[in-house]
Amino acid sequence: MILRLENVSKSFGALKVADSVTVSVPRGEALGIIGPNGAGKSTLFNLITGNLFANEGRIEFLGRDVTRAPAMERVRMGVGRSFQIPQPFEGLTVFENLLTAAAFGRGGREAEMVEDCAGILEATELLRKANFVAGSLSLLDRKRLELARALATGPELLLLDEIAGGLTEGEC
Ligand SMILES: Nc1ncnc2c1ncn2[C@@H]1O[C@H](COP(=O)(O)OP(=O)(O)OP(=O)(O)O)[C@@H](O)[C@H]1O
Ligand SMILES: [Mg+2]
Fold first, then answer.
1. Number of structural domains, the chain?
2. Relative to the CA of 40, which ligand 1 atom is closest?
3. How high is the pLDDT of residue 38?
4. How do strand 3-12 and strand 56-61 relate by DSSP bridges?
5. Cβ partners under 8 Å of residue 116, min gap 6
6. Is there an atom of ligand 1 within 6 Å of 35 CB?
7. Which residue, 16, 26, 38, 147, has most beta carbons within 10 Å?
8. CATH code, 39
9. Nearest ligand to the C-alpha of residue 15?
10. Residue 60 sits in which domain range?
11. Tens-place pLDDT, residues 38-63
12. What's the confidence (pLDDT) of residue 69?
């Protein structure tokens, strides 16, 4: 299993958002999480990534207990994610955003990172905008950049929180 949640619960005060969630995700599987606004989808993602901590339960990534591991450790282990509301460094260019994600999330030789980032820019159709400042991008390109940044960290597990949210059918 690449990911395993066992009886994971999370409350905000009296509001129980995750109630004893148990789920296993094998490598190579694409799992969709659906639910109405406020159901707790983003909260579940934040528990898996370490942006929030569970009140109860256990989270395993690649067989290792990460329940208490901070987000910065989990991303380096291979947990990549996009944010529902895109969170780029607004003042950096598209390419600088990717390189930052690659350097922080994965590391390695600079030439290798640059090459990988160029490939990701091409795959996400952002190559033409590599030198645009992130703050100047349209919603579609901000969503593309969010996916590109997640890929640049070299994830084993990729969590996409409403990556198509707010886009038209054609854009999706
Ligand atoms: N940090 C927080 N502090 C307090 N309450 C929170 C916090 N984060 C989320 N909530 C509440 O927890 C519930 C679940 O929110 P969450 O954002 O996980 O839902 P969601 O399924 O992602 O919704 P949406 O479809 O709107 O993105 C909501 O009632 C929300 O207001
Ligand atoms: Mg959400």
1. 2
2. 18
3. 96
4. antiparallel
5. 102, 152, 154
6. yes
7. 147
8. 3.40.50.300
9. 1
10. 3-71
11. 999 999 999 999 999 999 999 999 99
12. 98
